[in-house]
Amino acid sequence: MDFSLSDEQRMLVDTVRRFIATELAPLEDRIEQQGFLDPELARAVHAKSKALGLYALNFPEAAGGGGLSAVDRMLCEEQFGHTTDILIRRAFGNVYEPLLECKGEQVARWLQPAVAGARTCAIAITEPGAGSDAQGITTRATKTADGWRLNGSKHFISDGEWSDFFLVSAKTGDKEISMFMVDKGLAGFTVGKDQKMMGVRGTPHLELFFDDVPLEPLALLGEQGQGFKLAMGALNVVRLAQVGARAVGKASHVLELMVEQANQRKQFGQKIGDFQLIQQMLADSAIEINAARFMVLNAAWLLDQGADAREQIAMVKVHAAETLGRVVDRAVQLFGGMGFCKELPIERYYRDARIYRIFDGTSEIHRTVIARSVMKKGAALFELHR
Ligand SMILES: Cc1cc2nc3c(=O)[nH]c(=O)nc-3n(C[C@H](O)[C@H](O)[C@H](O)COP(=O)(O)OP(=O)(O)OC[C@H]3O[C@@H](n4cnc5c(N)ncnc54)[C@H](O)[C@@H]3O)c2cc1C
C-alpha cells in the first residue's frame, strides 16, 4: 500500500488550494451578508478557474473535462470543502455524472455545454411528498405522438436559479422511473420560490412546477425505465465527492481555526490550548477527520479499480457528515462566545454543516443500507483480505 502523493497530485492540490485562498475566500463574507453571489463576480470566478483548467475536473477528457481519476478528484474535492457551496458551483462546476449517459445529438446539446460551463445543470429528484423514498415520486412523463408530456413538481433543487436545464426523475410507468433533461423556458415549466435555508447562504434552492411540459424524445436520458437506476448509480461518486470529501475539507478548515485560537486565546494567564479539555477537542477532531479522509480515499481507489463501492460510500457519507457536525460543534465551544457571534465565521460553519447529514441520503438511510449489507454478507464485509 502506497499512501504517498505524486508530484503531479501535489501540484494539483496546491493549485486548487491557492485558487480558493486568493480568489474565493475573500468573497465569502459578502455572499453571507447579501445572501447571493453577484452574477458579475460569478462570471469572473468561472473565467479564472476555467483558465487554470479547474472547471469540470471530474469529467473525462474525451468529454472536454479534466479527466481526473476518482482519487485525484477527491483530493481536489477535499480542498473545495474549504470554501462555500455557491462558489464551488461557479468556479468548479456541478457537472453531474448521469450526463455521461448522453448519446448522439444529446452530447452537443446537453453534455458538452455543461462540461464547457456554457450551460449549468441541476438534479431534480426530491418532491414535497418524496424525499428519502425517491421512488415514491408522483411527477409523471406520459408518452405522446411527438415525445413526452411532463406533469408534477420538485422542491429543494440546489442551484435552480443558475441552471439552464435539469435532470428530472419522472414516473414513466406504474413502477418505472426515467430521467429527462428538461430545459428552463419550456412551455408549462415554471420555477417557484427560493426556499430559504438555515445555511449554505448564496445557493438558491428552488421549487419547480411542470404543467403539461412538452419534451422531445431526445430529452430522455438513458433507456426508458433505466435512466433513474443509472442516475442513482452515477450519483454515488457525487455523494463521495460533494459530501464525503467536502466534509473532510470543511472540518479540516475549521480545525485549523480551532488550533489557531487554542494557541492565541489566553485565560487564567495561559493559552486555552494548555487546558486538557480543550486538547481533547483538538485530538478527537484530528482523529475523526483523518479517519474520514482515508475512508474517502479508499472508496475513491475502489472506484478507480472499477469496483462497486456503494457500501463504502454509504459508510463515508455517514462518518464524514457526522464528523463535520461534531467538529463544528466543538469549534463553537472552543471559541466560546465568539463562536456564537456573527463577527467570526464559526457560527456560519456550524449552520452550513448541518445539511451534510440530510442531503444525498440521510444518515438513517445510509445506516440502513450498511446494516442490510452487513447482515447479508457478514461482519467481515469490509475487511481487505477477504
Ligand atoms: C439544502 C438542501 C439542498 C438539496 N438539494 C437537492 C437537490 O439539488 N436535488 C434534489 O433532488 N434534492 C435536494 N435536496 C433534498 C434532499 O436530498 C432531501 O431533503 C433528503 O433526501 C431527505 O428527504 P426529506 O427532506 O423529504 O426527508 P424525509 O425523507 O421525509 O425524512 C424525514 C426523516 O425520516 C427519516 N427516514 C425516512 N425514511 C426512513 C427510513 N426508511 N428509515 C429510517 N428513517 C427514515 C429521515 O432519515 C429523516 O430523519 C436538498 C435538500 C436540502 C435541505
- Within the largest sheet, what's the order of strands? 1-4-5-8
Percent of residues in helices comes to 40-55%
Q: What molecules are bound to this protein? A: flavin-adenine dinucleotide
CATH superfamily of the largest domain: Butyryl-CoA Dehydrogenase, subunit A, domain 3
Number of domains: 3
Percent strand: 15-25%
Q: Would you tell me the structural class of the helices and strands?
A: alpha+beta
Shape: globular
Determine the oligomeric state from the structure.
single chain
Give the uncertain stretches in residue-range form.
Answer: none
Average residue-wise pLDDT: 96
What is the second-level CATH architecture of the largest domain?
Up-down Bundle
Give the N-to-C terminal Cα separation.
Answer: 16 Å
Helix/strand order, N-terminal first = HHHHHHEEEEEEEEHEEHHHHH
CATH topology of the largest domain: Butyryl-CoA Dehydrogenase, subunit A, domain 3
Tell me the Rg in angstroms. Answer: 21 Å
Q: What's the CATH class of the largest domain, please?
A: Mainly Alpha
Please describe the biggest sheet, giving its number of strands, its sense, and whether it closes into a barrel: 4 strands, mixed
What is the tally of helical segments?
12
